[in-house]
Amino acid sequence: REKLLEVKNLKKHFNVGKNAVLKAVDDVSFDIYKGETLGLVGESGCGKSTTGRTIIRLYEATAGNVSYEGVDVHGKKSKKELKSFNRKMQMIFQDPYASLNPRMTIKDIIAEGIDIHGLAKNDKERMERVYELLETVGLNRAHASRYPHEFSGGQRQRIGIARALAVDPDFIIADEPISALDVSIQAQVVNLMMKLQKERGLTYLFIAHDLSMVKHISDRVGVMYLGNIVELAESDELYEEPLHPYTQALLSAIPVPDPEVERSRERIILEGDIPSPISPPSGCRFRTRCPHAMDVCASAVPKWQEAREGHWVACHLYDNDLNNENKQ
Ligand code: SF4
Ligand code: MG
């Protein structure tokens, strides 16, 4: 598998007043392979959107780096190189209504990127592209002269997707693209995204707050908690054999369709609230809510390690030295 993106020890901190620093993303590392969908999941405020926005350069990184096809995304760049990044990496947002200019027609919204990057020779070609994009996302040319408020939430998300596709990107960050949609519409948007991925060889970072939302679309899934990624694995493995206590709790909260299984399942209830990312707990940040917390969890930050092939976790339960001690 070929790497498209490498995120190494990425940090994004925000100054939020006198001597207060919000560590929204704090030392996060992962790779994204060409053509895959990496799901990124966690409760609101865990840093998943900030991770996406920092990767795509909407935010400057505080530390660490992101490389895209081997090129440092945050390093100094010429205008031409920046423009090329902006074209290759696109973003789809949670609330398509807020991200679509209400005073622009759909055709102008979609054509904006085409114009900026000079992807059409003349007006006829520009409109051909717009019509084609509308059809690609399941809308039609009659929609081109209308305004965003004339569309439903699902249709607006399709417009957001068409706008992202207009510049022919390789990589799309979808920040909770289905969270605001009715459940009946969510599957349609996910299916459309999967179809487009196949046709165009796209790579996705798919952000969601709920593990059930990314299950269908993701090849691999990463779980975030309070600015850290705590576990990352192939989807099937993560759902069947979650290692991190936080992932285990999240999965236990998803109802299973089979009532027999559902009745016999144990639900893990997490006590307490998520601590503030301005003053996170020492050691393991999950320790204030973890049913398995040990003394060491307060004093040492758990290492990000590959517990099994391709299955990464940050938790002292999988610390080999510690386990050997416990066995003796
Ligand atoms: Fe729980 Fe400790 Fe593992 Fe953190 S390191 S998840 S507190 S067992
Ligand atoms: Mg968010």
**What small molecules are bound in this structure?**
iron/sulfur cluster, magnesium ion
Q: How does the overall form come out from the CA principal axes? A: globular
Strand content: 15-25%
Number of β-strand runs:
12
From N to C, what is the helix and strand string?
EEEHEEHEHHHHEHEHEEHHHHEEH
Protein name: ATP-binding cassette domain-containing protein
Keywords: ATP-binding, Nucleotide-binding, Transport
Family: Belongs to the ABC transporter superfamily.
Organism: Fictibacillus terranigra
Tell me about this structure.
The chain has 328 residues and is of the alpha/beta class. It is 35% helix and 23% strand. The chain contains 13 helices and 12 strands. The protein has helices at residues 48-55, 79-88, 96-99, 106-116, 123-136, 153-165, 183-200, 211-214, 235-240, 245-252, 259-264, 296-299, 320-327; strands spanning 3-15, 21-33, 37-41, 63-68, 71-72, 89-92, 171-175, 203-208, 220-225, 228-234, 305-308, 311-313. The strands form 2 sheets. The protein has an 8-stranded mixed β-sheet, sandwiched between helices. It has a 4-stranded antiparallel β-sheet with strand order 2-1-4-5. Helix 5 packs across helix 6 (153-165) and helix 6 packs parallel to helix 7 (183-200). It starts with a strand and ends with a helix. GO terms for molecular function: ATP binding. Belongs to the ABC transporter superfamily. Keywords: ATP-binding, Nucleotide-binding, Transport. This is ATP-binding cassette domain-containing protein.
